[in-house]
Amino acid sequence: MALLVLVGTVVGAQVLGRTTRVSDQLLDQVQPARTEAYRLQAALVNQETGVRGYAIAGDAQFLAPYTQGRKDEATAAARLRELIGDRPRLLADLEAVQREAADWRRGYAEPLVAEVTPGAPRQVDQATAEKGREVFDQIRTVWATQNIDLTRAVRDSRDDLRHARAVRNVVLGALVAAFLLTGVALAVLVRLLVARPLRGLGDASRRVARGDFDHVIEVRGPADLTALAGDVEAMRQRIVTELDASHRQRDVLARQAADLDTQAVELRRSNAELEQFAYVASHDLQEPLRKVASFCQLLEKRYGDLLDDRGRQYVDFAVDGAKRMQVLINDLLTFSRVGRLNDARITVDLAQPLGKALTNLEVALDETGAVVERPDRLPEVVGDPTLLAMLWQNLIGNAVKFRHPDRTPAIRITCTEDPDEPGTLQLCVADNGIGIPAEFTEKVFVIFQRLHARDAYGGTGIGLALCKKIVEHHGGRIWIDTEHTDGTRICFTLPSVTDSEDGDRSRTEEEALA
Length: 514
Description:
With 514 residues, the chain is α+β, with helices and mostly antiparallel strands. The chain has 13 helices and 7 strands.
């Protein structure tokens, strides 16, 4: 058995090492090489943009992208050469790109820069511009070949990784089979050398169990079994039974205690990670975004006269991206806090959080002329008033946001007993808006999933995911009623006050018994 374990260890280490090497090659060389190729190409584009801008404006500051692009090109090429040094085809692609770039600078960019008089804008003639475009298109052709070869290298590396993993699985499966066969052989030996004497001891013990307490237990076999037979002979049925029951109970309690300890450790780790996430999301991540947005706005304010329309558009894109990232971080932070912070479990009249949600949406309802039809009375549930208000606000807010352009929003709220689960409340929010196609009824509950472009409807796509998490936190479920075709109808369930109290009481009794 020791020899088998040793051989299995050596073989397993080899196949695992092979898999690791292939995986490291993909992750540490091939994929980073493709990234460096993109950086190299971006540096060349910056050079071309800088030269063209300097030729038109005659302003020396337009040469900054050209100068920086040459530095970035050299850095990216050196890094790329280091990553693909053992791949002749990829190395040839890199040398071809650098050669074409040097020809472009020598034959077009540098002569054009030398012809420009600083501070004297001029109109670049069509022939010169066409020549520069033709020369640079040659570079684009070369780097397109480079991208194709890098993509092929990534695909080949992934194929190698899949093959290595398949070999690993086969070898490890064979080792497991060998261990099982060895175990069977050992079991046969144990049966011959140990099980038969033990069977004799068992027969004698059963005679004692049937009431023959004066029977002397005699077993032939190993000395250990003979000594054990002498100890067992002195025992009686009642003692044996009670001891066995005691051992079983002790094992059950030990396993339960170990499971509870494991769950407690996991819960503490999860809570610590969530707290760290909340801190990073609310401080460390948002501060750089605010700085990016502020400095972009300062850049536009101070140098707005020097920027063309494309430059100002880029600044606006940067500011908009930073602001949208802040919104995404805040939404993700809100999503992570559901059920973790301020988890109040009190009896709540559903009309109260609904009223709070309608108050928060009052401006949107007035602007759209939306009509909200609600029941005269809503039942009570056990839950968190803040989370329930957030649930109502997201559902009604979506009904207003995704309204039909040709009709006034009409929102109808209903409350009935769930036909599938007696004693459970089923609440629905129906509207006459644009609706949700049946094939997307599951996708809309996934965080950050959107069905429309951002310029068509605002938001981050977290609303229904947040609703799902709130409902499930309260012990319910949420879905989209596909039978409602004139708009959207979202239904969710919540346990009634009686069911919630019974569940809490049952859990308390189980904990007390444990």
